[in-house]
Design brief:
Radius of gyration: 24 Å
Length: 493
């Protein structure tokens, strides 16, 4: 296994990112006669990366694993969705229905849907209680919501409530919730180290203590996030039938056995076949403040957190485990000592997105042993540093092109070089790309101290482009200057 981290200084925003989620891109228009069918070789080539940050903004940004601009890019590559009034702590894509659920620190949940090129709020849920976890079922038809006071709720993708329950867990709170691979049961993790099991109809099954008084931070099954393949019958399944269908009707012949990974606040992980597994595989990660997620294929679990070496030094690290709990690969994030705040897989496990503070690191994932040619290309690209220097290398055009592919970026967008803002502001955007901006005023509008800053929207944040300052109380005259310059007078001089 091998990881290659992109060198993309523009993959950052102006606020701390708290959550990430990735979804494959479907065609904007589908044929009316035959509809759209999943083509795994093409569906995962392009997608959308959703991010939630501390400023209460949700970012939806286009990503592609094509080396160059192969295929058709969407007319708009970035959306900054506003509506939350506190930091967005959870973002969750629903791939089968192409919807996005977001939740803020106040417990307000929005479900967004894209219509005619714009994202709008379809559903709002507000209990005025903090939400600890949100999870879509694997078929996308149901949603599981966990609240800090022990209240749990299961509803449909259309907003209908199926059932709700107030868990009686004195002295502890519900920290996370997860669907079983067949969507017939839900597991809840608590701050006291217990797993509460309930069936799909809301009936209590059992409560199991894994570690006494040790908080369960997260749980995840080693199965596909969503079942994107259509049923053989092709019939629509009603919500009522969905709740009464037997588990055997949802199983696939020859399907592999999934593994449940349970992460504790102590840094310990349990790999379990089911909640009553008497001999789980126990792994000590040696990291703190971890985030974890299984790959879409379910064969690798990525755990990211702070790895401590000695007493003072700590670095952001990634560890990859198999279903048996064996450490397969580990790596440190280059030039980063901040805590991993979110991570998610994308592009059919070819990419890994990791957020540390305000930056998003993109890793190219190779599950097999890397070839000598690929390792050589990485060393060459690191030595030349800039793609423009490749022409000076005495290499055949084909090899020069292969090395140049390593300079391509997964997160797309027309973003300025921080040191060339003036060139960006006066040049025309490439092709038909449109830039969506926000203007913010500071100071009193009726005085000469009022200033206006033009920001470019990107990854849920704002990139400053230009700043203007009023020079007259009567005439609408402004001095426009580089936002990095602290004073308009120094810019005029």
């Amino acid at each position: 296994m091998h990881l290659y981290f992109e060198r993309n200084p523009s993959a950052k925003t102006d606020s701390t990112i708290l959550s990430l989620s990735w979804m494959g891109k479907v065609p904007e228009e589908t044929p009316a006669d035959s509809g759209w069918k999943l083509d795994r070789s093409n569906y995962y080539q392009e997608g959308w990366l959703a991010s939630g940050n501390v400023h209460g903004i949700v970012g939806v940004t286009f990503t592609t694993c094509h080396y160059r601009n192969v295929g058709s890019s969407p007319p708009r590559m970035n959306f900054n969705l506003r509506g939350h009034r506190s930091e967005v702590i959870l973002v969750r894509w629903n791939e089968p229905y192409q919807k996005l659920a977001t939740c803020d620190a106040n417990g307000i949940i929005f479900v967004w849907i894209k219509y005619e090129g714009r994202w709008s709020i379809e559903l709002i849920n507000d209990r005025n209680v903090q939400v600890t976890d949100f999870s879509w079922s694997h078929d996308g038809r149901m949603a599981l919501i966990c609240y800090k006071d022990g209240f749990v709720l299961v509803g449909s993708v259309a907003g209908q409530r199926f059932w709700s329950y107030m868990l009686n867990i004195e002295g502890s709170t519900v920290t996370c919730g997860v669907w079983t691979p067949d969507d017939q049961q839900v597991y809840f993790g608590t701050s006291s180290g217990q797993i509460v099991v309930m069936d799909i109809n809301g009936a209590m099954v059992t409560t199991v203590t894994l570690q006494d008084s040790v908080e369960i931070v997260a749980m995840a099954w080693s199965c596909e996030k969503f079942k994107m393949d259509e049923n053989d019958t092709g019939d629509e399944i009603g919500d009522d039938l969905l709740l009464t269908r037997p588990p055997a009707a949802r199983e696939t012949p020859g399907e592999k056995t999934s593994v449940l990974a349970v992460y504790f606040q102590s840094g310990e992980m349990h790999f379990m076949q089911t909640y009553y597994d008497l001999s789980p595989t126990i792994v000590t990660t040696g990291m703190t403040a971890c985030k974890m997620e299984w790959s879409n294929s379910g064969d690798i679990l990525c755990v990211g957190g702070l790895a401590h070496s000695g007493t003072t030094h700590a670095c952001s690290a990634l560890c990859f485990y198999t279903e048996t709990g064996t450490l397969r690969y580990s790596a440190t994030i280059p030039n980063c000592h901040r805590q991993v705040s979110a991570l998610t897989w994308g592009h059919n496990d070819k990419r890994l997105f990791v957020a540390t503070g305000s930056a998003v690191h993109v890793a190219w994932v190779s599950k097999s042993i890397s070839t000598l040619q690929f390792l050589s290309k990485i060393n060459i690209s690191a030595a030349v540093r800039h793609e423009s220097n490749l022409q000076q290398l005495p290499l055949p055009p084909r090899l020069r092109h292969l090395v140049g592919n390593l300079f391509s970026t997964t997160i797309k967008g027309y973003i300025p070089d921080p040191y060339k803002l003036r060139d960006f502001a006066v040049q025309h955007p490439p092709l038909l790309e449109r830039l969506y901006c926000t203007m913010i005023r500071t100071g009193d509008d009726f005085s000469t101290s009022a200033t206006y800053t033009l920001f470019l929207e990107y990854l849920g944040g704002l990139v400053p482009l230009l700043k203007g300052k009023r020079t007259s109380k009567i005439k609408p005259e402004f001095v426009i200057y580089d936002p990095k310059i602290t004073s308009a007078h120094s810019a005029a001089n």
